[in-house]
């Protein structure tokens, strides 16, 4: 028996479907003319418009680089934080509709890597835009933008002999999709919940604005700065910009794990609680001040979200709905879309 509330919710879900479908139909109808328009506005022009110069992958920096949702913007609304989707559109729809019972005024935030690897990347971007979701920039979102331009330049004859790479799905992105991806910030702060969202991780003790943007969407491990200095030349520390005696940082990001590394989320001690993705091999991470939501859906794992209850009023100075009060929900992947490179936990 459906309760009246459930009927109400299912009506909302039903009502929202034709919209999603028409968006998908639009995807299917995308023809070359829209790409011609997109390519006309060349990457150079976009770069010149971006005041902050280039990001770590050569793409124009978004404005703002670090975004914020004000207490007023989230007051009285649930916040649904979604792990790495990687084009798993069908699982995303199941997660939002069935597990989250998403309603129009819920604030949906993706932790990045919405696209690539999985089967329906353009559909995921279209859905995210359609529901007015927020997201931070994942390494795959950023590199897919680069792939888009590589293909677009090739297509328009501007890009020399560079053939498009294997990400053929980028050809289905509309100009609006591309614009949306360009706007993805490297972090999203939500002061009412003492919450910070990044795709990968943060180095403790370094102000957000001084964090290395490339590390924000790629880091997994940290090493004691002193241990690293002992091992590597001072050149390396200088080049990475971390660990000099003057900045007082105790930790440095490193590319792979060894005896002296720690998962960054284990070491992170705030002040904000960080929700992140990017680490399917570790799976769900529930730390005191960090929550990792990448549960490897594209590798046949699960797609996970955390639902935060609404904060009444503006939250004041003491958040009444910290991440720890959130509810975890997830759906099992419908299939294994890609083989994992390591063993998933
Ligand atoms: Mn990633």
Got a strand count? 14
| Tally of separate domains | 1
Percent of residues in beta strands: 15-25%
Question: If you consult CATH, what is the topology?
Answer: Purple Acid Phosphatase, chain A, domain 2
The N- to C-terminal Cα distance equals: 37 Å
Helical fraction equals 25-40%
Looking at CATH, the homologous superfamily is Metallo-dependent phosphatases
Q: Provide the gyration radius in Å.
A: 21 Å
Alpha plus pi helix count: 12
Spatially, the strands of the biggest sheet line up as 1-5-6-10-12-11
Residue ranges: pLDDT <50 for 5 or more in a row?
1-25, 27-37, 233-246
Average the pLDDT over all residues and give the rounded result.
Answer: 82
Bound compounds: manganese (II) ion
Structural class: alpha/beta
Largest sheet: 6 strands, mixed
Instruction: Tell me the overall shape.
Output: globular
**What is the succession of H and E elements?**
HHHEHEHEHEHHEEHEHHEEHEEEEE
From the coordinates shown, what is the CATH architecture? 4-Layer Sandwich
Overall CATH class: Alpha Beta
